[in-house]
Amino acid sequence: MADYKEIVGTRVKAVSANPSDPSDGQVWYNSTDEVLKYKKAVGGGAWSSGGNLNFGRRSGAHLGTQTAALYVGGLNTSSPGGTDIVESYNGTAFTEVADIPAGKLSLAASGTQTAGLAFGGEPETANTQTWNGSGWTEVNDLNKARHNHMGDGTQTSSLCFGGEGTPHATLAQTESWDGTSWTEVNDLNTAREFGAGCGTNTAALCFGGGLAPNLPAGSQNNENWNGTSWTEVGDLSNPSSYHSGGGTSTLAITMGRFNPSSPIWPETEAWNGTSWTEVADLSTGRYFTGGGGTQGASLLISGQAGPGSQNLVNTEEFSSVFQITPE
Questions:
Q1: What is the dihedral angle through the alpha carbons of 246, 224, 175, 153, rounded to the nearest 10 degrees?
Q2: What is the pTM for the complete model shown?
Q3: Closest to 267 measured CA to CA, from 221, 300, 292
Q4: Domain ranges in the chain?
Q5: Counting Cβ atoms within 10 Å, is residue 250 exposed (0-12), middle (13-18) or buried (19+)?
Q6: 203-256, pLDDT tens digit by residue?
Q7: What CATH number is given for 46-323 in this structure?
């Protein structure tokens, strides 16, 4: 049977006192207490304020982590259509960086702050661009032009799923990116748009989103991707659309949402691999957001706080509550 070192890659360290700032899931042996200890999540977590965007917009794409992110494109209410503005976040403040080649909204993105990928968007396009930390480069297009779609992964291994294609068709089509080109793979079980997703090219989650013909109402539908096909798994607690997601296929988070029959815009839910649980609400309920990160450290950017309201510039950061166990 494999031991801890074979599984994790390091031995359990013996210390006389608990580490001052252990990482989530870290394990150590406290020689004073003569007990094995670890840091684990014990609560729903909490939201706090982050730095404001320089340019308020909605329906842009997030890539990266809570402290090293990009917010790409989006809808600027001062002018019609999508914007080409890109802003970089360092955990404290946003800084404008090189524009994406063409203005767009309702696009998807994946990767990191220094190695990213942006694909699709409105005006409806199949265009794909890579980001190297300083500029954008056009690469091979999606097979199916789309917007309002979902995506996840890295710059060299991503997944694109769902969305809307011409003429106003809600899509189930899924495409896989290998760093050079897109390949069509197995469809979602349920076509959708305005949903959220997270994970990798081989282990992803797609949750919520609008189903035809009543798209804005959203759905509770949740599907898991194993690298080959999609399987329906535990539903969201409440129907959702125009929301964001982060994390992995087994530890995910969904943030902000729209439902025309209920003002549940601040709601946050966490996924444990089996079911969703409601956790701490956002300070400002919103939808049309950009967001991502991990379940324990996620970031939500911009959005709209109700029909007809102005685009938001404020950002919120979610952190799980952890404790050292045994106490």
A1: 30
A2: 0.86
A3: 300
A4: 4-41, 46-323
A5: middle
A6: 999 999 999 888 888 999 999 999 999 999 999 999 999 999 999 999 999 999
A7: 2.120.10.80
